[in-house]
Automatic annotation (TrEMBL):
The lineage of its organism: Bacteria, Pseudomonadati, Pseudomonadota, Alphaproteobacteria, Hyphomicrobiales. PANTHER family: NICOTINATE-NUCLEOTIDE ADENYLYLTRANSFERASE-RELATED, PHOSPHOPANTETHEINE ADENYLYLTRANSFERASE. Keywords: ATP-binding, NAD, Nucleotide-binding, Nucleotidyltransferase, Pyridine nucleotide biosynthesis, Transferase. HAMAP family: NaMN_adenylyltr. Gene3D superfamilies: HUPs. The gene is nadD. InterPro entries: Cyt_trans-like, NadD/NMNAT, Rossmann-like_a/b/a_fold. It comes from Bradyrhizobium forestalis. NCBIfam families: nicotinate (nicotinamide) nucleotide adenylyltransferase, PRK00071.2-2, PRK00071.2-4, PRK00071.2-5. It is an enzyme of class 2 (transferase). One of its GO terms (biological process) is NAD+ biosynthetic process. It comes from the Bacteria. Pathway: Cofactor biosynthesis; NAD(+) biosynthesis; deamido-NAD(+) from nicotinate D-ribonucleotide: step 1/1. Residues 20-198 form the Cytidyltransferase-like domain. This is Probable nicotinate-nucleotide adenylyltransferase.
C-alpha cells in the first residue's frame, strides 16, 4: 500500500504549503481553477492538489463519470503547473475526507496542508464523516460562494468552530497555524457548478 500511495501523490518537497481541494469533478470546470488560483494567492500556497473522489457519500453517484475520464478532464481544465490532480482516494479506497487527511498527515508529516472548500460545503460540513476530527487535524479555507454566505456562516459547523476563525487579512498565515483554524475568503465572484454543466442523463454539456 505505501508504494501505491506514494505514486498517487503529486511531486513535492519538504515544507511545501499545499491546498487540498476534494470533489467529484463531474465535470471539472473553470470555477475549480479560479478557486484554486485564488487560494494559491490569498493563502500563499505552493501547490493545490485536486483530489478526485471515487464518489461523494452525500450525493447521488448514479451519473458519475469514470474516474479516469474525470482525472483527464481535470488536468485539461487545471492547465497550471501549480495545480496537480490526484486519485489518492481511489488508491486508499475511501470516499471520506477524514481518511484522506489521516493518510496524508501520517505519510507526509513535512508538508503543510490546508483543506479548501466552498461556502456551500461549509453549510453542510456538520454532515461529513468525523467533521470535528477533520477540523482538528488540518487548517481550512472556505471560499465564499454567494448566495451561500449567510447559510454557511450560520451553519452548525461554522458556529461550533467560530472561535478558531482567523480574520481574512491573516489568511496568508493559515498554513502555519495549528488546527483547528479556518478563514472565510471573500472577493471571488463565480456562479458555476458541476451540476449546471451536466445534462439530465448525466453526460457533460458541450462534450457530446
Amino acid at each position: 500500500m505505501p508504494r501505491f500511495v506514494a505514486q498517487a501523490v503529486p511531486p513535492h518537497t519538504e515544507g511545501m504549503r499545499i491546498g487540498l481541494l476534494g470533489g467529484s469533478f463531474n465535470p471539472p470546470h473553470q470555477a475549480h481553477r479560479a478557486i484554486s488560483r485564488f487560494a494559491l494567492k490569498r493563502l500563499q500556497l505552493d501547490r493545490i492538489w485536486w483530489l478526485v473522489t471515487p464518489g461523494n457519500p452525500l450525493k447521488e453517484n448514479g451519473n458519475l463519470h469514470e474516474l479516469g475520464a474525470r482525472m483527464q478532464a481535470a488536468r485539461n481544465v487545471a492547465n497550471d503547473p501549480r495545480i496537480e490532480v490526484s486519485c489518492l482516494e481511489s488508491v486508499i479506497r475511501t470516499r471520506y475526507t477524514i481518511d484522506t487527511i489521516n493518510t496524508l498527515r501520517r505519510r507526509f508529516p513535512g508538508l503543510r496542508f490546508v483543506w479548501i472548500m466552498g461556502a456551500d460545503n461549509l453549510a453542510q460540513f456538520h454532515r461529513w464523516q468525523d467533521w470535528r476530527r477533520i477540523a482538528a487535524q488540518v487548517p481550512m479555507a472556505v471560499i465564499d460562494r454567494p448566495p451561500q454566505s449567510f447559510r454557511a456562516l450560520s451553519s452548525p459547523a461554522a458556529q461550533a468552530l467560530s472561535r478558531y476563525r482567523l480574520p481574512e487579512d491573516k489568511a496568508a498565515l493559515l498554513a502555519d497555524r495549528p488546527a483547528p483554524a479556518w478563514v472565510f475568503l471573500t472577493g471571488l465572484k463565480l456562479n458555476l457548478s458541476s451540476t449546471r454543466l451536466r445534462n439530465p442523463d448525466g453526460s457533460w454539456k458541450g462534450t457530446n
